[in-house]
Amino acid sequence: MRYTEGGFIIGDKLFSGISRFFKKTDVLYWVLTLIASVYGCVLIASLQRGGDVNFLRTQILAVSIGYVAAIIISNIDYKFISKCWWLIAGVALALTFAVFFIGIQIVGTDDVGWISLPGGMTFQPSELTKICFIVTFSTHLAALEERDKLKTFPGTMSLVIHAAIPIVLIHMQGDDGAALVFGCMFLIMTFAAGVQLRYFIVFLICTGAAIPIIWSKMLNSDQQNRLAVLFTNDDEMLQTYGWQQYQGKVSIASGGLLGKGLFDGPRVAREMVPYQENDFIFTVAGEELGFIGSAAILLLFLSILYKTLFNSIKATDPLGRNICIGFFSLLATQVLINLGMVLGLLPVVGITLPFFSSGGSSVACLYLGVGLVQSVYMHRADKNEIHMKVDITKPKRKKSRKRRKTKSTGAYDKSLKPQKRVF
User: What pTM was estimated for this model as a whole?
Assistant: First the structure.
């Protein structure tokens, strides 16, 4: 009997703890991100019907690990996480440098950006570095704003140096897609924080002037051809560097309004789009679920981005606002670049579609960002807290003006205070 009562007590405490957690957290944000992951798992299950590699198992494991990690992070005050920026930066740099020594290349990629793990698994440090960058760069921005140095030239240059470190290191690994994401995150976060507009104008002018140097010195022949294929109808180019994009557009167009049916896409079954489970997962939705299924993905992303931006507005300090904007910039950049790749508007640069593309490192680390946004939501200062200085000195009493009597009649002088006339 005691065991039964103890079991009820433990169960009641557990239930009340979960109930308190969901009362404090942004439940809709959890639901939206989980729906995106489930949707992605369904698409992966459909495309691996005849494959030898079980992408679905890896994806479910990554989502589970990421979701649990997000719950743990959301319960930690983001201000405490920010105070550990030096440790977070050290881990990110250590993993990034480790790639230069023990990094491996995955089939279907152009860069050596993975680390081999026991059990035949791999890990891509650049995905974790993106989340670490959100924390360290948000802390940097908040510190400059607190010291009123955000709009100064030295303060702006310190931000440039901060962002240049991961961009240069990851470019040296050959992962220019991830380097591009870091660059976009840097621009969006600094603009939202209030860095003066003239610095962005100078950046655009310098970038435009450096295009010939970037083309000839920084881009290899494969990258140049991937850009050139966007502006040509040459059959040889389309069958080599433009083949993946061409087949992807054909798959999307074949779906029509309602699609061929889930698990019934003939092009998906024949694996017409190379490496469709990764960067081109959107084409599976286009073929099997049609325009409706594709529009549902876009609506889902718009909802997640809106909620992230809304939580940044609700943040009560610059640090929390910067963290939310950082994750917003990460999601928005990857969604726009990935969809641009699939639709043939941008070159193929190896950017995954968040929460959908197969990739354990990507989806697990994305949920760390979800946990950071939830931490900002849960640990923001109470609106009822008083953040103003209160004057506790004794207030001066105002001298009351007494009505004086006239010398002649002894009546009150009515000229001192107007009287209401009663009719």
Answer: 0.85
